[in-house]
Amino acid sequence: MKAITIYSNSWCPFCRRAKMLLDHKGLTYSEINIEAEPAKRQEMIELSGRTSVPQIFIEDLHIGGCDDLFALEHQSKLDPLLSS
User: Which of 12, 36, 80, 83 falls between 20 and 30 A from 22, CA-CA?
Assistant: First the structure.
């Protein structure tokens, strides 16, 4: 299984929703809270080109945000990305 990283903050409902999907699928992920680690916010922006959370990565592949993650799941494209 590939490494998953999610940049988030503690109060974001979209972050919670994305993590709930990952948890439901039994996936392990690394969470980077940009509130607790403010320097990581700039890292997230540089890697994703976006300023909003969540920003989700599978290995070095930027998936996008919560809606993008759910779109991949509904199109049955998430599991192949994780196992390829």
Answer: 36
